[in-house]
Design a protein that fits this description.
The structure is a single chain. The chain is an alpha+beta fold. The chain has a domain of 168 residues: Barwin-like endoglucanases (Beta Barrel). It has a six-stranded mixed barrel with strand order 3-16-13-15-14-17. A six-stranded mixed beta sheet has the order 5-9-4-10-11-12, covered by helices on one side. A hairpin with a 4-residue loop joins strand 10 and strand 11.
């Protein structure tokens, strides 16, 4: 779930944006709410960035809380421990709770934490809840007539520049490219990479027979490869080519290839099987390309905290507003349903598309069934941060 717009655009210096103009009298002050139309006169007025408001609530006000089982939530929270800082004492107390003791788990959460509704400074207390999963695709360590599509590691010629080292105002932005002569130029887009095949300057971790499955593996950012010799390996996100992510579903809808209600993962796979001659152009409509690394065998894919995720209890969040490692109560609905999905989750992952105060990605687990849920999930929901009593809230001075 990590998609970045090409940072080369952000790196262009706008010193030449305006042509020189003759001297003129000092202009009046710029309007408070709107920029002046002539660029030498007034700088653009940027809206303030979204921030979080944490509104204290009662546990019995959380939808479904009184009847919710909490032992599995406690185990997911413990997987993030030990945590330094405000969560350290909570981790110590959680370790003393006996497994499968629902009453003790409830006492722990209600006595150690206080719930705070996450509300955006822009106003809404609801937001988009999507789903993700760990796909399993079939593959081979070596190419053959069937396994023709490489799962690439990081290319030897990919250059990554952390722009914060040059300008703190662009903290978190990275420039990706390659050297051509004495110039740093944008890295190859998806179509250029695929056209090079085995001649591309990157190690191939494995090879697969299914380009569509590989495409969705890149969208998820991690997965497993079931090898033809019976071995299964886990791979995870290592880097990306710096190009923007474009939705394949949106591309197909815009061109009349699929109705909007069928632009799910299953619908796209069915379209691909029925339209092999159009497939290459469709895949290349998304210029973003993800490179992988092989990971050690674990009980689940590794999230942003460096620990295995727990199916249906791990949540990807925007760490600017929700601290990683914290418990988060989620109230939403199951995919394409009005059935409530109310659960205490652990904030253990992030994602390039997970931006906003009330915004989360629900980890459904591994394999096709989890993928079916994840591919259909696009619900509205509410979130409550559980924060240790007596500790300063995130962002407090």
């Amino acid at each position: 779930m990590t998609h970045m717009r090409n940072a080369f655009v952000a790196a262009i210096v706008l010193l030449a944006a305006c042509a020189p103009v003759p001297p003129k009298p000092e202009p009046a002050a710029c309007p408070a709410q709107a920029p002046c139309p002539v660029c030498p006169v007034c700088p653009p007025v940027k809206p303030p960035p979204e921030s979080a408001r944490y509104i204290e609530a009662r546990f019995d006000a959380l939808p479904g809380w009184p009847s919710r089982g909490l032992d599995q939530s406690l185990r997911a929270f413990l997987a993030s421990c030990p945590r330094p800082g405000p969560l350290a004492n909570a981790c110590t107390l959680a370790a003393a709770v006996a497994p499968q003791d629902e009453q003790a788990a409830r006492v722990f959460f209600e006595s150690v934490f206080a719930p705070y509704a996450l509300v955006s400074s822009d106003g809404p207390d609801t937001g988009l809840i999507t789903g993700y999963y760990e796909p399993v695709i079939e593959g081979s360590r070596t190419p053959d007539d069937v396994h023709r599509y490489p799962i690439f590691g990081v290319p030897d010629d990919l250059i990554v520049v952390d722009l914060a080292a040059v300008n703190p105002d662009v903290r978190g932005m990275r420039l990706r490219g390659r050297v051509e002569g004495r110039r740093l130029v944008p890295y190859y887009a998806r179509g250029e990479i695929d056209s090079r095949g085995a001649g591309f300057a990157a190690p191939a971790i494995a090879w697969t027979a299914d380009p569509v499955a590989l495409f969705f593996l890149q969208i998820q950012g991690s997965g497993q490869v079931q090898l033809d010799d019976g071995e299964r390996i886990r791979i995870g996100y290592a880097d990306q080519n710096g190009h923007p992510y474009r939705s394949l579903g949106r591309y197909l809808v815009d061109r009349g290839e699929l109705p909007l209600e069928q632009a799910s993962m299953a619908g796209i796979k069915a379209w691909a099987a029925a339209n092999p001659a159009k497939l290459e152009d469709a895949l290349n409509s998304n210029p973003s390309y993800v490179f992988f690394r092989e990971l050690p065998a674990t009980n689940g894919p590794v999230g942003a905290l460096g620990i295995p995720l727990t199916a249906e209890f791990s949540l990807a969040v925007d760490r600017r507003h929700t601290p990683l490692g914290a418990p988060v109560y989620l109230a939403t609905t199951f995919p394409l349903s009005e059935e409530p999905l109310e659960r205490l989750m652990a904030a253990q992952d992030t994602g390039g598309a997970i931006r906003g105060v009330v915004r989360a990605d629900f980890f459904w687990g591994t394999g096709p069934e989890a993928g079916s849920f994840a591919g259909r999930m696009r619900q509205q929901g509410r979130m409550w941060l559980l924060w240790p009593r007596g500790e300063a809230l995130p962002g407090s001075p």
